[in-house]
Request: fold
Amino acid sequence: MKLTRSAITLYVVLVFASGIVLGAFGERLYTVSVVSAKTTRNPEEFRKTYMAEMKGRLNLTPEQVVQLNGILDDTRARFHQAREGLKPELSTIRKEQQDKVRAMLKPEQRPEYDKMRQEREEREKQTGAGHGL
Reply:
C-alpha cells in the first residue's frame, strides 16, 4: 500500500495536533492550583494588610503608626489571654481596641475609620471571618 503525499501530510498534522491537545491538557492538570473555601488567615499577613489600609485611607502620621502598632500588640496579647480564659470576653477587647484607635485619630480621620470598620464588619458577616490581629 503506497501512501500519497496528502495522506502523509494529514497523518503528520494529526500527530502534531494530538500532541498540542495532549500538551495543553497535561499543562492544565499540572498547573491546577488547589482552592479551599476555608483558608486560615495568617495573622501577620492580616496585620500588614490592615496597617497598609489604615495608612493609605487615613493618612496616618508616623506617630500614629507607632501608636496603632502598640494598640494592635496589646490587643493581640489580650486576645491570646482571653482564649486561655484569663481575661474578659473577646468582643469587649475588640471594642476597647476600636475606642483606642478612634481616640488616637484626628477628628478628620474618624469618619473614614468608622466607614472602614463598617465595611470590615459587613465582610466578616458575609464570610464568617473574625479578626486576625
Observations:
- The chain is about 75% helix and 0% strand.
